Hints:
By secondary structure, the chain is of the alpha/beta class. It has a single domain (about 15-210), classed as Rossmann fold (3-Layer(aba) Sandwich). About 25% of the residues lie in helices and about 25% in strands. It contains six helices and nine strands; from the N terminus they run H-H-E-E-H-E-H-E-H-E-E-H-E-E-E. The chain has a seven-stranded mixed sheet with strand order 5-4-3-6-7-8-9. A two-stranded antiparallel ribbon has the order 1-2. The model has no long low-confidence stretch (mean pLDDT about 90).
Amino acid sequence: MPHDDSGLPTYDAEAKMQFLFTLRSRGVTDTRVLGAMEAVDRGLFVQGAFAARAYEDTPLPIACGQTISQPSIVGLMTQALEVGPRHTVLEVGTGSGYQAAVLSHLARRVYTVDRYRRLTQAAEKLFQALSLPNVITLSGDGSHGLPEQAPFDRILLTAAAEDPPGPLLAQLREGGIMVLPVGQSDTVQTLIKVRRTAEGLDYEELRSVRFVPLMEGMGKE
Length: 221
């Protein structure tokens, strides 16, 4: 695999073209989102035996029993979030760091939190190597959000909750949007979009999805 000036591997033009074609064919049409996903090489976020499958539109295992979401779902969730260049975003569930890296090309600042220190440490190293200074990585219980940094313009959960967590809804600015999977099992989940208005909260169901569950507390790794 070729490498860039920083020594990081890069994906070739053909792989990139196919990757973007797949995203478009599955509903990712926002040009800013496509540009951000073109700028972030998913291959950097997939390690070991699964590295060769980094550009397939499929979720893949990562450390701590977690997954990196399939690219089209990342694109559709990012598109639904409607991120603008002046927005501050909270991501709950750093995982590999891929979603936060995509968001970093769209938002003013991205706070990303995960319950597994092993994951946040690995992701932070990648953010530094990719020169993404607008991503702040934290280890902690993301189900409580980051009240000291609230309110947020946008909130994204990459793990499924039974219902939208109250503490996170409370940290969403008026006019803000939260996108998250909800469901009581790992087989029946729905991606929803919540918009806070002056009158309250508007909910929109987007599609069926499958994510790891949102867990409270810190992980053991």
